[in-house]
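Hi support team,

I'm opening this ticket because the web form for multi-chain structure prediction keeps timing out on my end. I have pasted the exact lines I submitted so you can reproduce it. The total is 1040 residues across three entries, so I didn't expect it to be a heavy job. Is there a limit I'm missing, or should I split the entries? Thanks in advance, R.K.
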Amino acid sequence: MLALQILIDGFAISALYALGATGFTLIFGVSGVLNLSHGALMAMAAITAWAVADMVGGNAYVGAAAGVIAALICAFVTFRLIVRPIQNSRAIPGEEKEIFVLTGTLLWGIMIQEALAYLFTNTPKTVRPLIEGVVSIAGVRVPYNEVLTTAISWAAIGLLWLLVNRTRMGKRLLAASMNPRGLTLLGHELSSIYLLVWAIYGILAGIAGVLLGAFLGVSSDNAGTLTASAFSIVVLGGLGSVSGSLIAAFVVGYLETITAYLISPTIRTVPVLLLLVVVVYVRPQGLLGRR
Amino acid sequence: MYGRKACWDAADMLRNKIFLLVVPLLVVLALLPLGADGYILGLLTLAYYYAVFAMSWDLLFGFAGEVNFGPTFLIGVGAYTAALLNHYWHWSIPACLAAGSATAVVAGLVLAVPALRLRGPYFGLVTLVAVLLLQNMLVLNAGLTGGEIGLDLPDVLAVDDTQNYYYAFGFMVVSAAILFGLSRSPVGLILQASGQDAIEASALGFNVAKHKLVAFAISAFFSGLAGAMLIFYMGTASVGTVVDIAVGVNVIIAAVLGGRRTILGAAIGAIFLIGAGEVLRPLGQLATFIVAAVALIVILFLPSGFLGRFLQPGDRQ
Amino acid sequence: MGNCCIFLPVKGRKLMQLKGQLIMYNLRVAALLGSVFGFAFVATAAQAADPIKIATIAETSALGGIGIPRAAKIAAEEINKAGGVNGRQIEIVEYDDHNSAAEAVRAFQRAAQQDKVHAVIATYISEVMLALEPWSGRLKMPLITPGAASNEITKRVHDDYDHNKYVFHGYLASTQIADSVCEGAKKLVVGDLKMKTAVVMSEDAAWTLPLDEEYLKCLPKIGIKVLDHIRLSPDTTDFTPIYNKIEGEKPDVIITGISHVGVQPTVQWQQQQVPIPMFGVSSQATNATFWKDTNGAAEGVAFQMVSAPDVAVTPKTIPFAQKYKAQYGDWPGYAAYTAYDDVYMWADAIKRAGSTDPDKMVEAMEKTDYVGTIGRINFLPKGDTFAHGMRIGEGYITGLIAQWQKGNPVTVWPDAVAKGKLGFPSFVKLPQ
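Hello R.K., no limit was hit. The queue was backed up. Here is the completed structure from your submission:
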């Protein structure tokens, strides 16, 4: 049942990609920041989860929680210590702020990556799966872990959608991404919006990292590739558009899976790269991009 | 807008500062082989090639305002063209260098096309994808290109340390002179204007697109040439030394550290980065961490870079 | 000196100049004599205490790599405590190469030209070793690798002896490793488990080309039919499609050749409950922390080693492993055993040569007959296909097969030193 296998595996990988990319695009949409330390953040969450689980004698849940909390803290640090000072800096002219934030987050990502390698070596670590064992779906053997990864990813994305579209806080977030100044005119504090969005980002990236660690395993060496992957998906879908990233994540996830199964595992990433080139030349704002 | 006279006065002043800083430094560096040992010469040789990488990048970013995440695309194309021609068809080194830089210019123009239509992060992604594609192509065709092990070259620039040093040093000085001269010329000023505000620049009657294409071509030429020379210095061409994203990251950091839009700052940044990497070598794993941390601190507190304040042409009002 | 004369009246200037010149002349002579004596003094004093410097170049953020400097230091300490070499102490100088060929070359150049070491022990990555090899010849610096496997290393010594003679291969070549795996498979896989078919799964890297070539030759010779040969990118993170493909071909066993990847394929093998056992080369499986890194998914992974902490391959094996564990908290990785031996062999070569002259060291090293932790080490001579590689076979170096069982690596072959039998997790299906 190759087709079913591809369907299921593609779905799992896409869900994971979607989770990682959503946070990335959210930060860009609301805060205007392309966080190049994204991959390092995810790797850190996964490795923290592994380390803490080990320390408390193998409890996977405690480890996972620790990983997400670590990501949350790191996201705040990234915002307060790096992004905000650059954005508020008087010494940097406005049009150059973007490149400085990019370089700043890039360097921060390198620091995190090297610190992880120093403390934990660059051997890949696997986060303990929350549920062990396999289940048979219509004749295809699927690890429970994979099912869980997909379920949690979708739950997180669903919660985010609810937050943005149904709560007052969420609506403010949406407004801030469209017109920050308008929002302040209405009397709302922009700074609390930014804090909120970075907090959401931290949690999303943390969950994505921990799930990735459980599903595939993560090492400090993966930080760069994870960032590049999120970046690509987000640009494909349209920078700043959450629904765009979701669709793009599935396109990329399935394209990779189909290539790996039907053509060759070695050239897994090539079709996606080619697609990116085509999109950037033909429709540079991505599928659903606004800016 | 400065009046013409004021423009040249400012330029004179800057030029003097530059003279005071740069010329004694160049003299010292030129005389270095008389005293320093092979190890230091080798280090600086590598640093000089990186300096040209960084200066080319600065021309593109600092002046034309194009964020290039993948300087190693241009460097790699130049380097591998030269390497393949030398390894398989035994072309002479000068011929390979010429072919390498020519191919790099073509690659640069290919990259320039989307640049004219995209802004900021989108273009950045194109450059990133270009590097990833190049890397994949090279690694997947490992039988032809040597993949990760690299391609060893029958010819090298020189075996002697001092000779290699002077080749690199001379190349860097000439490239710096050309790039710096360009940046201060009317073409450079137009580039700068196009980079900072393309609309106003074209409103003033300048052909923004043409100037950006020129910037790409020049940046590509020097990047490709430097890449080709680098591999003939090392005797092998490998993905890890001329294509890997890490190399590109180093180039960007060097240019930003040294001070964007200064050209010479990029060279200083590159030498500093390579030097710091070696000085910190005894620290083993933490060396990269510390270099990144220092670079981050410089960016946060000294955004003009080391030389920015000295050498930057005044921002327009 | 010219300046001092500016302020003097014209008449006295000429006199002052002559006097000044005489003083300068005297000073110069005094300086010359002083420096000659000083140099002689310093030179003799220095020579008495001049340490023998051995450099280690490896990636210290990798488990496989950090064992190299650590083990080297243990060896150096022991030698120094026993009096050093001809009265001289051994000093280990460490370099981190971040597993990058370019960094390793720079470190090598620094070691040779700046820090003036006398020998180098470098890396377990073939690509890095191959990049260092020509520099060993250019800088006339004796170099040995405790872990890289590519056949190319010794081939270069064979093809251009005069230039590359400074290089020694302190580990098995890929072809020899494949033969070792086949030997073990003959007894365990074919003999005990009655398996008939296999798929070879290896990563696309320099060292696996000759490994796979030899696998494809020696496996049929022991009665195993090779159904497929899969080479995967060392950057692979998702092994599901690969296991899926292999499972579709229904082999009895997967013969592995992996080093850059190890944790991820093993974890995914267990999570997906792939019903086919893995047997062969998995460098990461030789790390003491492999069990922890895989959260126990390593159960049942059978891998080839040349030394193990529970097997007295020689009387030196277990004491070294114990000492390493006591000092660093973990059992040594595979390159640590050989790095330990390499320090002893360099020291021995220098002692026999009576000097640190590179050519004399090489001559002495070629005559090495040393019982290390991995067996009795002899280097193959100049004309041999694997020139400067180690002699393999009964009485020299044979290799072991070990398997992770309940948190520990247990040696299962050869019978003479086996501590347990092969056993697999329940999801693995064995032929009846």
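A quick check on our side: The two ends of chain C are 98 Å apart (CA to CA). Let us know if the file doesn't open in your viewer.
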